[in-house]
Amino acid sequence: MFKIHICSKDKFSVNFNKKRKKHFTVRGTELFRAVADLFFPRVCPLCGQVLLTGEEGICLSCLSDLPYVRFRDTAEGPLARVFWGRIPFRGVHAFLYYEKGNRASRLVQAIKYHGYKELGRWMGRIYGEHLRSLPPFDKVDLVVPVPLHRRKQRQRGFNQSEWIGKGIAEALQIPLESRNLYRKIYNPSQTRRGRYERWENVEGIFALRDPSLFEGKHILLVDDVITTGATLEACATAVLQAPGSSVSLAALSMARG
User: Is-contact 114 192, C-beta < 8 A?
Assistant: First the structure.
């Protein structure tokens, strides 16, 4: 049995019993978070440990142990070679290495299939802070997420790439545009398809509602995972129909080749 006593607008105490009393000092919404955590403790979706005060999204241990991509060369690096000769791009980058069962794959699955959309936004902000100092991403005009077909988005309830893009846009302090590029054809999932099948599956399925919105703009296309690059290639092909536009590509994770 315990009682909560509000001492002031930024301080409260919790009496667990007569011998044990714990004081907390918080400000603003932190008060409500601290109280809520007593009843509904937040847990890390990757390891299941209870999140401590100050931890957001995932625990600090999992955050430090994520398989980060280390290369900084966005035009000549291993990921850039995936797109050589396929589309003109200014830069391409991924934040994490995605392998079956690793922390990056569990992170993406938590965002995509288990409703942790705010986790996508949080990771997007962290990723965006990294991109801010990395040319050419420091010169982007708009963040554009890879769109879902409206049927798929109704089924899932949200677009995971849009939530990752929101965080990136916030960190870069530029707008997010999620409506102009759209998926005009509902196509089967890319999962378990080979490289050529993936390319066939997305060829010509994206379009722009108003090309003038992207005219002369440097567009950052954002996805959750790059595997063969077929989806981002198809999106970029549609975006580049806008006169004078250019594209860079970013994904929260990439398959280790």
Answer: no
